[in-house]
Amino acid sequence: MMSSFESGLKGLSTIIFIVGAGGAFKEIILKAHVGEYIANLMTDTNISPLIMAWLITALIRIATGQGVVSAITAAGIVGPLIPTFNVNPVLMVLATATGSNTITHVNDASFWLFKEYFNISIKDTFKTWGLTLLLTSITGLIVVLILDIFI
Fold this sequence. Notes:
- Keywords: Membrane, Transmembrane, Transmembrane helix.
- This protein is an all-alpha fold.
- It has one domain.
- The chain is built from eight helices and no strands.
């Protein structure tokens, strides 16, 4: 029975550690006032805060390889944009969520799950899983921007 618990906790502990690390990173971002700094920089631009949220999340996803970490960290960065630009918070969450699924690479657990489940090469995983994530992310951003027109 203990070995059964042990095998179950191994997988769960990794997920908890990743989410916890993302939350800690988000807190560092908040304490450093990075979100407020980006909000101040954006006041002079014509870029939609929703596109900026998607882009920031996507860049963090590319840098870390983890969707959860990128979403949590980006939430700390783009949170101050909501009152500054009077953005619908639901759309900001959706823009951040779609940005967190932009690109996959070898640091991403879902990359390896997909590769191993379908028993395909790393190259084919990039071609299939990577392209799927990129297309769903861009489609999600387009839907968010369309919703922004009507909400």
